[in-house]
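ok posting inputs for the S-adenosylmethionine job
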Amino acid sequence: MINVSVTDIGDIGIDDKWNNCDENELIMHSIHAYPAKFPAFIARKAFSYAEEEGVKIESVADIFCGCGTVALEAKIHNKSFLGYDINPVATLIAKTKSNNYILKELKSYFKIIEKEYEAYAPDHSVYESANERLKYWFSINNYIALLRIKHAIEVAIPRGKYRDAFYCLFSSILKASSHWLTKSIKPQVDPEKLDKNPWHLFADQYQKFERAVEQINNCNLLNQRINIFTQNFIAKKSFEPVDLIISSPPYVTSYEYADLHQLSSLWLDYTDDYKTLRKGSIGSVYNSDGFNLQLEELNNCGQRIVQELLGDKQTPSSKVKSVARYYTDMQHTIHNCTKMLRKSGMAFFVVGDTEYKGVKIQNSEHLIECMVNEGFSDIKAAKRTISNKLLTPYRDNAGKFTSDKSSRTIYHEEFLISGRLF
Ligand SMILES: C[S@@+](CC[C@H](N)C(=O)[O-])C[C@H]1O[C@@H](n2cnc3c(N)ncnc32)[C@H](O)[C@@H]1O
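and the output
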């Protein structure tokens, strides 16, 4: 990592240290797919880097914890952890990955679930009264099979972490059990897709979970505090202090997390209408309704980019408003980080730049300016190439995601940015 200022972030070269992974990831890291999950070794390397820089790390936070990559690495490295994410599916996965389980109990719960699944035979007429969106995504046979699994989980296990873990496994098989186009980052039906048997998917996923738990239980771990909350980080008013924040903020107008997790949020009864979960989600194109564009509230980089996108238009398009809203939200985010970090603590962010209609959306430069304005010092950065993002990293000329690899690559590099609060 090298010292950078707001203006020279674009000039730094790729640092191989942040590209290479020397160890295999724990099985638990892949128990549930999650868009824009970062590789676990980034968290591991960030711990060593922060320690080399003199941070004494007892507590770690991820303010956009997603599926809990940092949470699990903090647990494995015997650090306490605090995580927030606005998406309830994210926090379900993050909690499942970082909780402690007794293998014997898991096995006995699975046996009961299997029995209850066999015993429950709902009438096919239940499909008629199902949520319309679920009917859109699932064939009648798979809907009924999933209903039987969910019912079996609820009958077999009392509320608590074991039931939640089985809900997480259930959630992880929903896309494969549906008409959702495999690996698509948009909610898109694949009319050719053949139905897979949900019970087989669930049982396989359970076997994987057993192996994942066994692997973790074989590590010598202290019982550190891990707390994960479904929470809009910007709306937070009080903060528990931590030594290190590691986080990858959402990108502007890229993933619609609420839309991408609609199968899980509908099945798990987080909502009847997944669109309500878009509210407050940073970077969502649907999060700028009612947002009043006030250029003067943006920092220099934010103003410059929004001006460039506006061109000679007087009224901002919804996309321009989304970018402005994103920058405002990120300014609040960094402000809140300063309230959360202990003296001499470090914030470490993973962020990439994007492009829209030929205008570079410089999230990295904007983030550094936010950090400088909020009193961070010793700001350092490195650049890495992205090799294994879960979902397609390509965008077409209109800035839309595409699987066509001949299109411009936008997300093939990202920045690691650290700063200290003294
Ligand atoms: C890039 S992802 C983080 C991925 C994570 N590093 C992982 O490995 O899974 C960004 C996350 O920010 C969350 N998010 C968006 N707006 C938020 C808000 N206002 N408060 C908290 N989390 C938010 C999204 O739900 C998403 O999970």
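notes: Confidence is low (pLDDT under 50) at residues 388-395, 403-410. The pocket of S-adenosylmethionine is lined by residues 34, 36-38, 64, 66-67, 69, 84-87, 90, 232-234, 248, 250, 257, 280-282 (CB under 6 Å).
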